[in-house]
Design brief:
Elements (H helix, E strand, L loop, with lengths): L2 H15 L5 E15 L8 E13 L4 E15 L3 H4 L11 E18 L2 E16 L13 E11 L4 E10 L13 E15 L2
Antiparallel strand pairs: 1-2, 1-8, 2-3, 3-4, 4-5, 5-6, 6-7, 7-8
Length: 199
Amino acid sequence: MNWKLLFLLPLGLIVLNVSAQKINIGVRGDYTYSRINGDGMSIGYKAGFNAGVFAEFKIKARWSVQPEILFSQRNIKIGNFKEYFASSSNTEPGQYAFLSYISVPVLLKYKIVKELTVSAGAQYSYLVHADETLLRDKAEGFKKNEAGILAGLEYTPSQLRFYGRYYRSVYDINNINDLHTWYTSQFQIGVGYILFAGK
């Protein structure tokens, strides 16, 4: 499946409905627990964070679309990297990789009851900085572009909103070779606050 379609389809709903619908604007932040699944990569989930802004566009009585712009810090525990990448591995590849992304999730949301909402959507992320020493000659071990899908639950008792989400990338982010595939998985637990509630 083309990740661009996953991302642009809900975004298109915003364009069609934005002029006549309610808009909420706010900030959000969360703890993230990330790992990269694949040969030579993660040993367990490690803590990081997401922080940024969101805009929620109501499109029907129970339906809304929510795009976000986030800064994401993922801390990855490296496994037996040299076993799989002996020909290109640094002498000491290090135990961690610290990856900083700009992420743009777009979620389609459905309100089950007044204060409880389920959501699902797509996310595109761009790697802006990688603090890692996996390869010789300062070569980059991770691809710049990442896309994936996410889903979660949200509880909104007031202007505050509490949420949990699961994210999974759908394309290989290994920049070294095509022999071993790496996929990101992530749990997010966080809180948002509505700064502006539209009429």
